[in-house]
Amino acid sequence: MKNAEFSGKPRNSSPVSGEDIPAALRDFPDVAPKRRLSLLVLGIGGVLVCGLLAVISGFLFAWTAPKKNLVSQPSPTNATPANSQNNNTDQVLGHLAYTEAPESELAPISADGRQRLRKVAAQKYQEMVAAARSAGVILTPISGFRSVKEQEQLFFGVGAQRNQTPAQRAALSAPPGHSEHHTGYAVDIGDGTAPATNLNENFENTKAFQWLQTNAARFGFEMSFPKDNSQGVSYEPWHWRFVGDRDSLETFYRAKNVKPTQVPQ
Question: Where do the D-alanyl-D-alanine carboxypeptidase-like core domain residues begin and end (predicted)?
């Protein structure tokens, strides 16, 4: 006999309302999206903050770096005058400092023995005089080695007699301690046939000067102060110096950093 209450359909086949779902199960789907949204917002905010900090740091670095360089590195324009001062510390009124040659190194170049040069320079000078004489030119030594004491009289004594200032006197004669004649390598030369041209620019018109321009280098001599020389010393066509060995060359060039002036032939 069949049970009248059994219909053959499941008892739970009717739809289940939301009120029948436990509260824990109903709230779970809403919590996960909110957490993901919060994490996303935090991530974006962190990226923006990091980017902003990077921009600010770069701006501050660019702003402060040039100032540091200006403080720590000297400018090139400041370095040049310092070097120029170092190169010119041994100059007085355009004349370079020279030490006095020892007496034992000197030899006569004039008949009376009053004019002297260092031995090697004296020998070459005598050879030059002989070569010039064979060409009909008379070279006369006016002044050779000169001590510092003699230079003091020539500079200060003569300057006072002529009422010349030190600057005016320096255009004609070097201050004591700054004359090439101290070295024993320098000599003032005149023309034996034209004494009126001694120690003045008219000497450039003599046969002696013309011969020296063409032949002096063969004997190791050169004009010390040609026109427009690098030292700014007045033109002295009569003043010649020996540069024919290592010591004389270094005396006038290496130690003083003086560049040779090209003399037109």
Answer: 115-245
